[in-house]
Amino acid sequence: MPTFDLVIASGSVVDGSGAPAYRADVGVLNGHIEAIGDLSAAQAAERFDASGCIVSPGFIDPHTHSDLPLLVNPEAHSKVRQGVTTEVIGNCGSSPAPILGPYAEEIRTRVTTAYLQPDWRTYGDYLDRLRGVSPSLNVVPLAGHVTLRTAAMGVAQRPPSTEELDRMREHLVEALDAGAFGMSSGLMTPPSSYADTEELVTLAETLHQHDALYFSHIRGEGNTLFRAAAEAIEVGERAGVPVQIAHHKAAFRSNWGRMPQVTQLSEWAVDRGVDVRFDVYPYTAGSAGLTQLLPDWSHEGGRTALLGRLHDAATCSRVREDVLAFGREWDRIYVTTVHTEANKPLEGKTLAEVAEQRRVEPVDALFALLVEEDARAGMLHFIMADSDVEHVLKHPLSMMGSDGSSLAVEGPLSAGRPHPRSYGCFARVLGHYVREKQLLSLEQAVHKMSGAPAQRLGLRRKGLLRYGMDADVAVFDPTTVIDAATYALPHRYAEGFRCVVVNGHVTVRDGEHTGARAGSVLRRQDR
């Protein structure tokens, strides 16, 4: 028997396949699982006592927006501290590259933050930049349709010309050749929302040629939910590519209770041979930019044009009519992030409260806030029913995805009041939905957070605790694991995680980050 780098001893192994837990030690050598069994007599450079704990594969988050945060927070604190060892970036159509062509400045402006200036051009340049910071977890990249379309034709509300579509495909191929696993669409975010189904199918055919995936923030999650889900399935079916529906949900009261019917569309598709899956986060609130509350047409031309419309009285009046026609519940929309010091006290308040404080109508408070914040303010929006969330959580085609980012309780990424899912998604599933509500068995939950997303992404060496697999491991106490992050106090690390191992390196020990940065930026070609 070899001398192991690490033995995780005396734990209950939940291997990620959905099979029942069993008592065993896990031996790690050279970044891989070298043995599982009785290793009590084995020599090891380090031995971690996992008595009373679950030993599982590291969790794979198939839906994140850590593209830029990882460059600032390569330790990925909020994620690895809840057992996440792999993140998929570039979701919802938003990737930070390419920054090329006549509309490069539009993309650069969107990507630039108070703490980061982009210094890359191609998608491959960006991935090299990400590799250069040596993140603490593994990264699976996707190219975003929002960025691809902007690079090709700006923020134009029309079909692309043949030349523009070819340019989109060229940018997509460059990203795929650089290692991207596929493309994501953000069909509620201009200019991705300006694309028709034929454009998406054409790009998906390019994905098919490269054995890549199609991830979709579908075109609507409210009144158009059925048509939107059907469109995502259609794109996959026609192009012959696997489809991942992002954060599958039924939004707004009039649609609550419809998820069993909506997920049946995916079930029927699977029955006829379409490879469709979906991810879900365990919360009833979503989060996005406040600009998402404005009609699609008002975004044409980009941020500068949008702000110009809000400054023009006649056009602003038209925007106002469209916003009011939607029937928003202003007391369920919270301001999460602003950038001006004068508006910092508004973080955590509802738009109804902001309106009352300013003695204006909520829609006018929204417009004023967008103008003051250069259209960069964020929101948290309570739009879902518990019953629908629970239906998707336990559905056999679902897996867990945070829709969050790798944040930290200190530094530039600790600003504002972001959605607590960035800190607590996976811990919440284990603590609230497994232990407290018993909605899922522990084995089912772990499978949805490891084996299932690994299979979806084609990661043959991740997602399972088996001999020869990559040593990505999470060790947690099933009696105490819980999400500490709340909507009011989101910057809190999850509790109950004793040890997290990434590629054989202990990255979290007794709940504290060790500083290890052993993650890899994965390439589709190397799966």
From TrEMBL:
Any single Pfam family the record assigns to this protein: Amidohydro_3
GO molecular function: N-acyl-D-amino-acid deacylase activity
Enzyme Commission designation: 3.5.1.81
Gene3D superfamilies tied to this protein: D-aminoacylase. Domain 3, Metal-dependent hydrolases, Urease, subunit C, domain 1
Species this protein is from: uncultured Chloroflexota bacterium
Domain named Amidohydrolase: residues: 48-507
Protein name from the UniProt record: N-acyl-D-amino-acid deacylase
UniProt keyword list: Hydrolase
Lineage: Bacteria, Bacillati, Chloroflexota, environmental samples
Top-level class of the enzyme under EC nomenclature: hydrolase
Highest taxon, organism lineage: Bacteria
Record InterPro entries: Amidohydro_3 (IPR013108), D-aminoacylase_insert_dom_sf (IPR023100), Metal-dep_hydrolase_composite (IPR011059), Metal_Hydrolase (IPR032466), Metallo-dep_Hydrolases_sf (IPR050378)
